[in-house]
C-alpha cells in the first residue's frame, strides 16, 4: 500500500485528505469527537511537510442534497481547536466557494470542503457519475491522501475513484488501522480470542464463518446472542431474535465443535420488563428467560466467565457491546469485557463503531488498548477477509 512518502516533496502542494468526520451530534454539539481526534496526525504530518491541506468528509446520510443539519461546521470547529489554527469551511464541495477557499490556501493552511454526500455522485452506483465528481475534486489539488478508514470498504468517489485520478497514498490512520487489524487477523499470537456482540447475528455472519477456522475462542454477547441461545433450544422471551438465522447458527455451533473452536455463551442474562433505562430487571439463567422479559445484557456470572476467557489471550479482538451499555443498568457486561482486555497482556483491538463508543462513554483510558479502530463496517469486513476497494486502489 502506497504511503505518504511515495508522494515525494509536498512543499507548496495542495493535498486532498479524505478523513472520517462522521461524528455523533446533539444538535450542533459533537458528543464523541474520537474520529476528529483520529484525523489530526495525518493532517499535522502533511502540514509539517509544507502542504496546504484540503479536508473532505461526510456526515450522516443527507441523501445527495445539501442539508444544513448535516453540515461539517461542527467538525471544522473542533478540528480547528485540535490543530490550534483556523480551518476554513467552504459552502460547497466543488462549486465557487470551494474553488475560492482552496485558491486562497497557502502552505500550512487547512481548509475543509462541505459534506461530500451533499453531492449524489459521491455514492452513485454508476461508475461514470462517481468518476465525474472525482475529476472535479482532482482539479482542486496535486495529490490525494486516503485517511478515512471508516469508508474504505465503500466504492465512493472521494474514497475510490479519486485515488485513480491523482497521485494517491494512505494516511497515517489508515496505515495504522490496516497494520493493527492485519496483525490480529493474519498473524495472531495465541490464544486468539474474539468477542462479538451488537444487535444482529446477521451483521456478523461473514465474520463468524471466517473466524471459525482461525480463532481459538469466540465469546458471544449482545442482542445477537439470543439467536445462539434459541439455536440451543432455549426460550428467549421478548429478546431480539432472528428466527431465520437459527439454522445457520446451529451450523456454526457444529462447525466450531468440529474445528476445536470454543464458543462461549452467557450463563446468565439481565432480563428486563421493557427496553428502558429504568425498567425493572433481574438476573436469570440463560436457559430460563421469562416469556414476558427482554434480555438487555449478559449477567454478572457471564461477565466473570468472559473475563476469565480473555485473561490468558495473546490476541483479543472485540466488535460489538455485550448489552445496552447506554443504560447504566445494562452496561455491566460491556464494562467487564473492556476491563478484561485492559488487564490482559495480549494485543487488543477494539473494532470501531459501538465498541469504540462504549470505551469512551464508559470512561476507559483508550491507551489501555492496543488499537481502537475508527471504522466499524470496515474493520468487520477485514475480519471477514474481504478485499476493501478503498485499500485495493492504494496498492503500489
Explain this structure.
With 396 residues, the protein is of the alpha/beta class. The strands form four sheets. The chain has a six-stranded parallel sheet, with helices on both faces. Helix 1 crosses helix 2, helix 8 crosses helix 9 and helix 10 packs parallel to helix 11. 50% of the residues are buried.
Produce the secondary structure layout.
Layout: E1 14-18, E2 25-26, E3 29-30, H1 34-48, E4 52-56, H2 73-83, E5 87-89, H3 96-104, E6 110-112, H4 127-138, E7 143-146, H5 157-161, E8 168-170, H6 172-186, E9 192-196, H7 205-211, E10 217-220, H8 225-231, H9 246-259, E11 262-264, E12 268-272, E13 281-285, E14 294-298, H10 300-311, E15 315-319, H11 332-343, E16 347-350, H12 353-361, E17 371-372, H13 376-384, H14 389-392
Parallel strand pairs: 1-4, 1-7, 4-6, 5-6, 7-8, 9-10, 9-15, 10-11, 15-16, 16-17
Antiparallel strand pairs: 2-3, 12-13, 12-14
Helix pairs in contact: 1-2, 7-13, 8-9, 10-11
Q: Could you list some keywords that capture this structure?
A:
single chain, 36% helix, six-stranded parallel β-sheet, 396 residues, elongated, alpha/beta
Summarize the structure in short.
It is built from 14 helices and 17 strands. By secondary structure, it is an alpha/beta fold.
Amino acid at each position: 500500500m502506497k504511503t505518504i512518502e511515495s508522494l515525494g516533496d509536498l512543499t507548496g502542494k495542495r493535498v486532498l485528505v479524505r478523513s472520517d468526520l462522521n461524528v455523533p451530534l446533539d444538535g450542533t454539539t459533537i458528543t464523541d469527537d474520537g474520529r476528529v481526534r483520529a484525523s489530526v496526525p495525518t493532517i499535522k504530518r502533511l502540514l509539517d511537510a509544507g502542504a496546504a491541506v484540503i479536508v473532505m468528509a461526510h456526515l450522516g446520510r443527507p441523501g445527495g442534497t445539501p442539508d444544513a443539519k448535516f453540515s461539517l461546521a461542527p467538525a471544522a470547529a473542533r478540528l480547528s481547536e485540535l490543530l490550534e489554527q483556523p480551518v476554513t469551511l467552504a459552502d460547497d464541495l466543488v462549486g465557487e466557494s470551494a474553488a475560492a477557499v482552496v485558491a486562497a490556501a497557502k502552505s500550512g493552511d487547512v481548509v475543509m470542503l462541505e459534506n461530500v454526500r451533499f453531492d449524489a455522485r459521491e455514492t452513485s452506483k454508476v461508475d461514470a457519475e462517481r468518476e465525474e465528481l472525482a475529476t472535479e475534486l482532482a482539479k482542486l489539488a496535486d495529490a490525494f491522501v486516503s485517511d478515512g478508514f471508516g469508508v474504505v470498504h465503500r466504492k465512493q468517489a472521494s474514497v475510490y475513484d479519486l485515488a485513480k485520478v491523482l497521485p494517491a497514498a494512505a494516511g497515517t490512520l489508515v496505515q495504522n488501522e490496516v497494520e493493527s487489524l492485519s496483525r490480529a487477523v493474519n498473524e495472531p499470537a495465541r490464544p486468539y480470542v474474539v468477542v462479538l456482540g451488537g444487535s444482529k447475528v446477521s451483521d456478523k455472519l461473514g465474520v463468524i464463518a471466517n473466524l471459525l477456522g482461525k480463532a481459538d475462542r469466540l465469546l458471544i454477547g449482545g442482542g445477537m446472542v439470543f439467536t445462539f441461545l434459541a439455536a440451543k433450544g432455549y426460550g428467549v422471551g421478548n429478546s431480539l431474535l432472528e428466527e431465520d438465522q437459527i439454522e445457520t447458527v446451529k451450523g456454526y455451533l457444529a462447525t466450531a465443535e468440529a474445528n476445536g473452536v470454543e464458543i462461549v455463551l452467557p450463563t446468565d442474562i439481565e432480563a428486563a420488563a421493557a427496553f428502558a433505562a429504568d425498567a425493572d430487571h433481574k438476573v436469570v439463567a440463560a436457559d430460563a428467560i421469562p416469556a414476558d422479559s427482554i434480555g438487555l445484557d449478559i449477567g454478572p456470572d457471564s461477565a466473570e466467565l468472559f473475563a476469565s476467557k480473555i485473561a490468558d489471550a495473546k490476541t483479543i479482538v472485540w466488535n460489538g457491546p455485550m448489552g445496552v451499555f447506554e443504560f447504566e443498568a445494562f452496561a455491566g457486561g460491556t464494562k467487564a469485557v473492556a476491563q478484561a482486555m485492559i488487564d490482559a497482556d495480549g494485543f487488543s483491538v477494539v473494532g470501531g463503531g459501538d465498541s469504540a463508543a462504549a470505551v469512551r462513554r464508559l470512561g476507559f483510558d483508550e491507551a489501555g488498548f492496543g488499537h481502537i479502530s475508527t471504522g466499524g463496517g470496515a474493520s468487520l469486513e477485514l475480519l471477514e477477509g474481504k478485499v476493501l476497494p478503498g485499500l485495493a486502489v492504494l496498492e503500489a
